[in-house]
Automatic annotation (TrEMBL):
Its EC number is 3.2.1.4. InterPro entries: 6-hairpin_glycosidase_sf, 6hp_glycosidase-like_sf, Glyco_hydro_9, Glyco_hydro_9_Asp/Glu_AS, Glyco_hydro_9_His_AS. The lineage of its organism: Eukaryota, Viridiplantae, Streptophyta, Embryophyta, Tracheophyta. This is Endoglucanase. PROSITE patterns: GH9_2, GH9_3. One of its GO terms (molecular function) is cellulase activity. Keywords: Carbohydrate metabolism, Cellulose degradation, Glycosidase, Hydrolase, Polysaccharide degradation, Signal.
């Protein structure tokens, strides 16, 4: 063989196999953070959601630089759509990412709420702020789901804090004539998952959420179509449904089954799964594509409850997990030189946090089962998945080549110039006079750090070479988003409860 020739497939297989054996048998390295530090990060990751609140703020609001905003949302359409969350650094309420955020916040509490200690109530409050809004959006008008408030093109031409908004607060909806199965089924998933969170603490509210979830799922399934086709430039390119709506239908049905135990939804999954993506191996989990998350969620039924009909989902969940493990025959992922999972240049950390939640959730399911997991010819333990997730979480918190925490307010070095209107413009407390649409750009272009600390916000993160530009103008790296933070809540809860030796 010449020096430039590639190793044969058989040699590559044995190299991969050796790597897997090593990674599943060696002790985990020393850890960068203590349980107390993880708990501090957990506290801040939940606090971030207060900074994204729309509507009338409660008396116990901790991020006091924020004020009331968008108090008449929906009124010109004779519907109350006050509340909910702004998705990122702008002032629009986008229904698809808000619903996905809610589902993952709820999943974080469902799996790891017992580890949240004094933050459990705050996590529930973060979920309820959104589930209250989604409940109104789903039940205010028959055969209608309100999916967005705010004209995004006009909003993005302004740089103003939400308290001063004067851009159009147009309301957008999906109906039988203009369907949106993707956003509707994700809303159903969010309501169903939230119903599980409140099942014991508020049974009446939980029941109301579940009934609404069933109603909006039936609407999504009966009137099929993508909301991107119905609403077009209003949601594209902002939150265009690139993966279509099949993945959300399967995801929504899975969450309603988990919340209700109704065999009708298991039958739906069995009858429709092959058409809706059950046979697909996808290696990304995000606000757009739910397939990997659905495989992990349904695998619990097989692993823990031995529901044989769902063995297929466990097999595909294994494929997804193997795709993340370097050296595995099914390895698909890309990592930066510093070890960060890298999926794309825009808001990459959304994939890192969502993947970390799936790794830890699957590790929990495996630990509760006598059924193992294999990548090629090697067994992979739950502890390996925990170690891989910890590497990602620690990287975000500061164990990285830049030695920077990508969570605002955590550690000694973190982003100071995040792409976020409310954080970068003087607060209404310090500057009560209105700051208009165009006047706000002086703060956008300023070289000074943001005056308001959006504590707990996780930004988009570094590039593929581990370099980070703390530049307000670089929204790809410097903008936070609710769906980046939501799965991190569960991951941080898990690690805050684990001694450093595990």
């Amino acid at each position: 063989m010449s020096a430039s020739a590639s190793p044969s497939p058989s040699i590559m297989f044995w190299l991969c196999l050796c790597f897997i054996i090593l990674t599943t048998s060696l002790p985990l390295p020393a850890h960068a953070f203590t349980s107390q530090q993880y708990h501090d990060a957990l506290t801040k990751s939940i606090l971030f959601f207060e900074g994204q609140r729309s509507g009338k703020l409660p008396s116990d609001q901790h991020l006091t630089w924020r004020g009331d905003s968008a108090l008449s949302d929906g009124s010109s359409y004779h519907v109350n759509l006050v509340g909910g969350y702004y998705d990122a650094g702008d002032n629009v309420k986008f229904g698809l990412p808000m619903a996905f955020t809610t589902t993952l916040l709820a999943w974080s509490v469902i799996e790891f709420g017992s580890s949240m200690q004094d933050q459990l109530q705050n996590a529930r409050a973060a979920i309820k702020w959104s589930s209250d809004y989604l409940l109104k959006a789903a039940t205010s008008t028959p055969d209608t789901l309100y999916v967005q408030v705010g004209e995004p093109n006009m909003d993005h031409r302004c740089w103003e804090r939400p308290e001063d908004m004067d851009t159009p607060r147009n309301v957008y909806k999906v109906t039988p004539q203009n369907p949106g199965s993707d956003v509707a089924a994700e809303t159903a998933a969010a309501l169903a998952a939230s119903s599980l969170v409140f099942k014991d603490s508020d049974p009446s509210y939980s029941s109301k959420l579940l009934q609404a979830a069933i109603k909006v799922f039936n609407f999504a399934d009966r009137y099929r179509g993508s909301y991107s086709d119905s609403l077009n430039s209003v949601v594209c390119p902002f939150y265009c449904s690139y993966s279509g709506y099949h993945d959300e239908l399967l995801w929504g049905a899975s969450w309603i089954y988990k919340a209700s135990g109704n065999s009708e939804y298991m039958n739906y999954i069995q009858s429709n799964g092959h058409v809706l993506g059950a046979d697909d191996d996808t290696f990304s989990f995000s606000w757009d594509d739910k397939r990997a998350g659905t495989k992990i969620l349904l695998s619990q039924e097989f692993l823990v409850k031995n529901t044989q009909e769902l063995e297929l989902y466990k097999a595909h969940a294994d494929n997804y997990i193997c795709s993340l493990i370097p050296g595995s025959p099914g390895f698909q992922a890309q990592y930066t030189p510093g070890g960060l999972l890298y999926k794309g240049s825009e808001s990459n950390l959304q994939y890192v946090t969502s993947t970390s939640l799936l790794l830890l959730t699957y590790a929990k399911y495996l630990s509760s089962s006598s059924i193992g997991m294999r990548c090629g010819g090697s067994t992979v333990t739950a502890q390996t998945l925990v170690g891989l997730a910890r590497k990602q979480v620690d990287y975000i918190l500061g164990d990285n080549p830049e030695k920077m925490s990508y969570m605002v307010g955590f550690g000694n070095s973190y982003p100071k110039n995040i792409h976020h209107r409310g954080s970068s413009v003087p607060s209404i407390r310090d500057h009560p006079q209105r700051i208009s649409c165009n006047d706000g750009f002086q703060y956008f272009h300023s070289s000074s750090p943001n005056p308001n600390l959006l504590v707990g916000a996780i930004v988009g993160g570094p590039d593929s070479s581990d370099r980070f530009s703390d530049d307000r103008n670089n929204y790809q790296e410097a903008e936070p988003a609710t769906y980046i933070n939501a799965p991190m809540v569960g991951a941080l809860a898990f690690f805050s409860a684990k001694p450093a030796a595990t």
